[in-house]
Every structure is written in structure tokens, then in C-alpha cells.
Specification:
The protein is an alpha/beta fold.
Length: 219
């Protein structure tokens, strides 16, 4: 079982998240916190695997709690869950060692997917958050960086390049599949191949590489 803590200062929000997560047979919500300080303490005392952190909480905000968790409980994987999708929040969450960033308007299945990914040591970003990161970090690339990126992409097939461009747009596997008329599972396979070929740890790194290379009209 994946042991989860939910940290949000609104009880109703916590109840909704709990209901979604407990619908999965491999997730157990073991604790809830109303502020960041409590989230850090309970994450340690309840042997939590994944902590969901809202950004705007009293006493200690979610990003500060994330940084504290990385210091005192590095084994706990932290997901930032918020209605505030500004670029700075996304980048701070990643720089503090967060396992992912998920907006509260995400589909229930995406929330479950994010928790599972975090528990297995994988990074997870919602499509909207991916786009924020790409826009923030990859603007104004130099000619040399563009040339380097393009050379790295030469190992990809035409179809893989097409999928990579869609990742850069921030599309989920399902949406990318609908765009190119293949199944979600097929897109997942393409993404796995792309990450392996490009030696990228996650979708965001691959999307940044595509942006540097000038791949696709949406970049």
C-alpha cells in the first residue's frame, strides 16, 4: 500500500482528495494536516510514502514544507497540489526536490496516477505545469544550444518527434493519442522510448530539449 498524507487548510478539499485516493485499492490515506508544519511532523511520524502539499497554508506554506521535508525526511516523496499554477511556484517546487506538481482542476485519475508515480520514484507534472516549465526555462535559447539539441533529436523516428512535440505542448498521453489517432498505451510506449533514447529522466526534460531544438510550431 502507498501511504499518503494530505496537507490542505480546507477540510472540504482534504475530504474530496481523500475520497478520490481511497477509491484506489493500492493507496491508503494515513494522515491529514491543516498547515505545512503539521504536514512535516505527521509525514515523519506516520511513515508516509507520499505527501500532497497545498501551497497556500498557514504557519508554513507548502513550498517551505517541501524544502523542510527534503531536509528531515528525504525518503518522503512530495507532490505539490494547488489551484495556483504560476510558473514561479512550479519552478520552486521542482527546485526544492518535489516529486511533481499537480493543479487542483486535474481529473481524479490524474491525481491517482501522480501519487503512484511519486511512490515509485518518478517525476510527475500535470500537462499545464509542464508547459509552464518549458516556457520559463527554455525561452531565448542560443544557436549553439539549438544545434546541440537538434543533434540529440536525430536518434528519434519521425513518429517519436511528433510525440515529443506534443509533450512540449503539455499534452497528456491521452490527449496526444487523440491528436495523432493512436491509443494512450501506444503514446506511453513512444514516451518511454523517447526518454530512453534522449537519456532524459522525465517528460519535462524531453520537452525542454524539443524547445531548444525548435521542434514543432507550438515552440
Amino acid at each position: 500500500m502507498i501511504r499518503v498524507l494530505i496537507a490542505d487548510d480546507e477540510p472540504l478539499i482534504r475530504a474530496g482528495i481523500r475520497m478520490i485516493l481511497t477509491s484506489a485499492d493500492d493507496i491508503d490515506v494515513v494522515a491529514e494536516a491543516g498547515d505545512g508544519r503539521e504536514a512535516v511532523e505527521l509525514s515523519r511520524s506516520h511513515a508516509v510514502d507520499v505527501t500532497l502539499l497545498d501551497i497556500r497554508m498557514p504557519v508554513m506554506d507548502g513550498l517551505s514544507a517541501l524544502a523542510e521535508l527534503r531536509r528531515v525526511a528525504p525518503a518522503v516523496r512530495a507532490l505539490v497540489l494547488t489551484t495556483f499554477g504560476e510558473r514561479d511556484n512550479v519552478l520552486r517546487a521542482l527546485s526544492h526536490g518535489g516529486a511533481g506538481f499537480l493543479l487542483k482542476d486535474a481529473a481524479p485519475g490524474e491525481l491517482i496516477q501522480a501519487v503512484r508515480a511519486a511512490a515509485h520514484g518518478q517525476a510527475f507534472l500535470s500537462p499545464g505545469a509542464t508547459r509552464h516549465v518549458v516556457d520559463s526555462l527554455a525561452s531565448g535559447g542560443s544557436a549553439s544550444r539549438q544545434e546541440t539539441a537538434r543533434k540529440r533529436l536525430e536518434v528519434l523516428t519521425a513518429r517519436e518527434l511528433e510525440v515529443l512535440a506534443l509533450l512540449g505542448e503539455g499534452l497528456s498521453n491521452a490527449d496526444a493519442g487523440a491528436r495523432i489517432h493512436v491509443s494512450e498505451a501506444t503514446v506511453k510506449t513512444y514516451v518511454s522510448r523517447i526518454l530512453t533514447k534522449l537519456d532524459c529522466e522525465n517528460r519535462v526534460q524531453a520537452a525542454l530539449l524539443a524547445r531548444d531544438a525548435g521542434l514543432g510550431s507550438h515552440f
